Amino acid sequence: MATVKFYGNETVPLEMHKVRIVQKLSLPPVERRLEKITEAGNNTFLLKNDDVFLDMLTDSGVNAMSDRQQAAMLVADDSYAGSATYTRLEDKLRDIFGMHYFLPTHQGRACEHILAKVFVSPGKVVPMNYHFTTTKAHITLQGGSVEELVTDAGLEVVSVNPFKGNMDIAKLRAVIGQHGAGNIAFVRMESGTNLIGGQPFSLANLAEVSNVCKEHGVPLVLDASLLADNLYFNKTREDHCKAMSIREITRRTADLCDIIYFSARKLGCARGGGICIRDRALFEKMRPLVPLYEGFLTYGGMSVREMEALTVGLEETMDEEMINQGPMFIGYMVEQLQERGVPVITPAGGLGCHIDAKRFVDHIPQSQYPAGALASALYIASGIRGMERGTLSEQREPDGSEIFANMELVRLALPRRVFTLSQVKYAVDRIAWLYDNRHLIGGLTFVEEPEVLRFFYGLLEPVSDWQNKLVAKFREDFGDSL
Ligand SMILES: *Cc1c(COP(=O)(O)O)cnc(C)c1O
């Protein structure tokens, strides 16, 4: 994106790329959308992509690749061991992060599996700014526990704090004091903190965390899956970073950490993942698990084509005009929605735009899944698929009672360089219409509720005939438009 001044004074994020491969989309009429979401049990995970107009479910594995990435995939060196492709990837990671050792994996959660197996055992604690679903699952599976130490600002839905992903340093010291440094498996910082709205941490905060870790001899692990967004926010929101290049900020970030792992489904716009390690002893502890769970040490479950695309994607991540596309589109969407009074998480983060369902449909009790109901209503109104991030995504207590989530969010992910500005405008328009008709939206109730990960497979139905009324109002307002 370029910050180009428009004669008309409007602020518009301007694409610095052109689109040369396209995929046709279809927008089914509203009656069919109602049918499809009913078939999917009001669960957007169960919709078929053919029935979705704009897929804003996730940014994972669906970012657009560049022409250079595609070209690199054609010159991949296919060999089980010692492939030249692998060497190119390893060299690129050394160049960017300055860490000597690398272990490849098939995706981000595989890194978490290996880290948890090596560092976590019953009674061990992992302090972190905030958890990610798979991270927490791997740590607890090994008998460890997670301490979330994000600053209080991180959980405020409406805020002007530019770094809501920061860790509270006093809380970190207290947790280490309480458990003893020997019981801390490692400290984990997540860039572009996923579950609280893609919110970044500042480089200054990371430096403080790093100091505390060094003082106590505890390793600092960075989850760099959403690093690209975090780097952009460091550069644009943090004074001492303004004069630094993205490459310099990246190296400064890496220098503060002992281990960096990432999902290449996000970082590098490819697929796969890996762990970069500074210290030989730590590398040797983790290395045996890679051939066991992932694949041989020079591919770790990734295809050579993915590794070539990743190598080029990592280099492209050092380009500010590339990594700013996501945050600038999200910033635009958040600003447009705010102008129309729609409650969203502020400030805008990376990853996607997050609608605050607690305020949007404040008449729906948490026991009727307001964020799930809103995601269903949004699909009916627009053909857009978002993701529920609220009570539905929680699991019941052993006694069957609900755990009500802190936040009820509908996340609209903006995969990087995939959508156009008119598609974003369409999304804003339909969300605004839905907001004006929010009183028509009702709750949901389970028809089939799996015990584990119910948000993936669960089937729900509306508590009344509110969806038919919504369709009728749509026809009234939009005539025979799609
Ligand atoms: C997606 C993600 C992961 C897991 O990566 P996968 O490639 O999906 O396994 C871990 N951490 C964060 C912050 C993520 O966003």
From TrEMBL:
Superkingdom, taxonomy of origin: Bacteria
Protein EC: 4.1.99.1
Keyword annotations: Lyase, Pyridoxal phosphate
Residue ranges constituting the Aromatic amino acid beta-eliminating lyase/threonine aldolase domain according to the UniProt record: 55-424
Keyword check for Lyase: yes
GO molecular function: tryptophanase activity
Cofactor: pyridoxal 5'-phosphate
List of residues that carry N6-(pyridoxal phosphate)lysine: 266
Xref: InterPro entries: ArAA_b-elim_lyase/Thr_aldolase, Beta-eliminating_lyase, PyrdxlP-dep_Trfase, PyrdxlP-dep_Trfase_major, PyrdxlP-dep_Trfase_small
Record PANTHER family: BETA-ELIMINATING LYASE-LIKE PROTEIN-RELATED (PTHR32325), TRYPTOPHANASE (PTHR32325:SF4)
Family recorded in the similarity comment: Belongs to the beta-eliminating lyase family.
Subunit composition and interactions: Homotetramer.
Name assigned to this protein: Tryptophanase
Organism: Rhodopseudomonas palustris (strain HaA2)
